[in-house]
Design a protein that fits this description.
Number of strands: 18
Cofactor: FAD
CATH topology of the largest domain: Vanillyl-alcohol Oxidase, Chain A, domain 3
Number of domains: 3
Structural class: alpha+beta
Number of helices: 14
Radius of gyration: 21 Å
Helix content: 25-40%
Family: Belongs to the oxygen-dependent FAD-linked oxidoreductase family.
Keywords: FAD, Flavoprotein, Oxidoreductase
Shape: globular
Protein name: FAD-binding oxidoreductase
CATH class of the largest domain: Alpha Beta
C-alpha cells in the first residue's frame, strides 16, 4: 500500500486507522462497507492511480460519493470515495453544467437557480449527481416533462479498468456512452459529467396529507387521477409513519399518514384545478401545495428517512383496482404486518420516450414503480428483506421484470438474476458485451453488477 500512499494526494486509509470508518460510512446501517483500503480521491489523477493500483493488486473496486452507487460490502476490495471532487461550472449560454464526481444536487441547483435554470434533479437535495444519473435519474419535478436525467448527458469523463481517463461522448466511444447512462458503475469511475439544464425558476408543489385510515379512498382517487393529468404534472403517493417530534406538524405527529406528492410545471390556477379531485378524496390533514422556488424541490417528497432502509421494489405494468386493493391490504389500517413505508411513483410522459441519443435506461414504458420498506437492526436485515419480498408477492399479476435500477434494494442489486431481469435480456446482453470490452476482469463489481460476457 506504500505505493498508493506516496502517489496520491488524497488520504489512504486501512481498517483501524483514523478516519476509516467515517470514509466508509453510508446511509444504510445494515450493509457497512469494509474494504481492504480506502482512497479519498481529490481529482482525476488520484482516481487513475487508484484504479491502476487496484488492477495491479487484483483488488475489486467500489466507488462512493453520496452512497447511490455502491451496494456490496466492498469486503476485500479498494473503495474510492469521490466526495472531495467538487468541481462545478454552469454555462448559461449553452444551458449546460459540468459537475465533478462528488457534487450533490442541491449544490447544482444553488448555482443554476440564479440563472433561471434547473437540472433533472432527484427527490432529495443530498443525492449525488453521478450515481443518480448513471442509474437513469428519475425526477419528481422535471421527469415526466423532460425524461430521465441520463437522457440529457452530453459528455462523461471516466477512468476505465485499464487506468485510462476517457472523455466519452455519443461520437467518441458511443457504445460506452450508451452503457454508462443506465448501466450504473459497471464500466469505470466517473470523474465528471456534463449535462443540459432547463429554464425553470418556480414550480407548484408540495404535499397533501390524509389520515392513514383513508388509504383506500385516497389511493382509488389518485389511481384514476394520474391517468388524466398532463406531462407537466408529476405525482407519487406514500404511506409513511410520522414521528412524534415537535418539528412535525401537530396534525401529523405520531400517526401513519397518506402523503400525496405534487410537482407541477405550470401556473398556480392550473395546478389547483388539476389537484382538486385529490383534495376531495378524503378529509385533508395538511395541504402544503403552493408556489415554490426551484431551490425548494426537496419539499415535494420531504425525504428525511434513510436513503437505503431495507426495501423491495416492484414495477407494475398497470394499477387496476385489484392491485390497489392489494396495496391497501399491505399498508392500510387492517394490515397485520404493515411495512414502515410504502411508495408508488407514477411515471409516463417523457419518461416513456426514447431520447435523441439512446442509452441503457431500462424502465422506459413502465407506468408505475412501488417500493416498500422497513427498518430494523442489522441482524434483522435479511429476515426483513424476505418478509417484504413476500409482502409484494401479491402484486405479481401486474408486475413487470424491468424496473427502475436506482430503486433496487441492496439484496436485489447484488443478485445477478434480479439485475438481469431489471434490464431485460436484450439490454443486459448488450451491457455484458460492453463490460467485456472495458472491464473483462469485472474489476468494478461492488455495484448493480453486470458480468462480462
Amino acid at each position: 500500500m506504500r505505493l498508493v500512499l506516496r502517489d496520491v494526494a488524497g488520504p489512504v486509509l486501512t481498517p483501524g486507522s483514523d478516519g476509516y470508518a467515517a470514509e466508509c460510512a453510508t446511509t444504510d446501517p445494515h450493509r457497512p462497507l469494509q474494504p481492504t483500503a480506502v482512497i479519498g480521491a481529490t481529482g482525476e489523477d488520484d482516481v487513475r492511480k487508484a484504479v491502476s493500483f487496484a488492477a495491479w493488486q487484483g483488488l475489486p473496486v467500489a466507488v462512493k460519493s453520496a452512497a447511490h452507487q455502491v451496494v456490496g460490502s466492498a469486503d476485500g476490495g479498494l473503495l474510492i470515495t469521490t466526495g472531495r471532487m467538487k468541481s462545478l461550472s454552469v454555462e448559461a449560454a449553452t444551458r449546460s453544467v459540468r459537475a465533478g464526481a462528488g457534487v450533490l444536487w442541491d449544490e447544482v441547483v444553488a448555482r443554476t437557480a440564479p440563472l433561471g435554470l434547473a437540472p433533472v434533479m432527484g427527490s432529495a437535495p443530498g443525492i449525488g449527481v453521478v450515481g443518480y444519473t448513471l442509474g437513469g435519474g428519475l425526477s419528481p419535478l422535471l421527469g415526466r416533462t423532460h425524461g430521465y436525467a441520463a437522457d440529457h448527458v452530453l459528455r462523461v469523463k471516466v477512468v476505465t479498468a485499464d487506468g485510462e481517463l476517457r472523455t466519452v461522448t455519443p461520437e467518441r466511444e458511443p457504445s460506452l456512452f450508451w452503457a454508462l447512462l443506465g448501466g450504473k458503475g459497471n464500466f469505470g469511475v466517473v470523474t465528471e459529467i456534463e449535462f443540459r439544464v432547463f429554464p425553470v425558476t418556480r414550480f407548484q408543489g408540495g404535499g397533501i396529507f390524509f389520515a392513514g385510515e383513508r388509504l383506500a379512498d385516497v389511493l382509488e382517487a389518485w389511481r384514476r387521477w394520474v391517468a388524466t393529468v398532463p406531462e407537466e404534472m408529476s405525482s407519487s403517493l406514500a404511506v409513511r409513519p410520522m414521528p412524534g417530534l415537535p418539528s412535525v406538524p401537530r396534525a401529523l405527529r405520531g400517526s401513519s399518514v397518506v402523503h400525496v406528492r405534487i410537482g407541477h410545471l405550470g401556473a398556480a390556477e392550473e395546478c389547483d384545478r388539476l389537484v382538486a379531485p385529490l383534495r376531495a378524496a378524503a378529509p385533508v390533514l395538511l395541504d402544503t401545495v403552493g408556489t415554490r422556488p426551484v431551490t425548494a424541490f426537496g419539499e415535494i417528497h420531504q425525504d428525511t428517512d434513510p436513503l437505503h432502509p431495507v426495501h423491495r421494489t416492484v414495477a407494475l405494468r398497470a394499477l387496476p383496482r385489484e392491485a390497489a386493493d392489494v396495496l391497501v391490504r399491505l399498508a392500510g389500517p387492517g394490515s397485520v404486518r404493515r411495512p414502515a413505508r410504502l411508495e408508488i411513483r407514477a411515471l409516463g410522459g417523457a419518461l416513456d420516450r426514447e431520447p435523441e441519443v439512446p442509452n441503457a435506461v431500462a424502465s422506459r414504458g413502465v407506468p408505475f414503480v412501488v417500493v416498500v420498506s422497513a427498518t430494523g437492526g442489522g441482524e434483522r436485515a435479511g429476515a426483513l428483506g424476505e418478509e417484504l419480498a413476500q409482502a409484494v408477492g401479491g402484486l405479481a399479476p401486474w408486475a413487470t421484470d424491468r424496473s427502475v435500477v436506482n430503486f433496487l434494494s441492496a439484496q436485489e442489486a447484488t443478485d445477478e438474476e434480479s439485475v438481469r431481469a431489471a434490464y431485460g435480456p436484450v439490454r443486459y446482453s448488450r451491457l455484458a458485451e460492453v463490460k467485456r470490452h472495458y472491464d473483462p476482469a469485472n474489476l468494478f463489481r461492488f455495484n448493480h453488477n453486470i458480468r462480462p460476457v
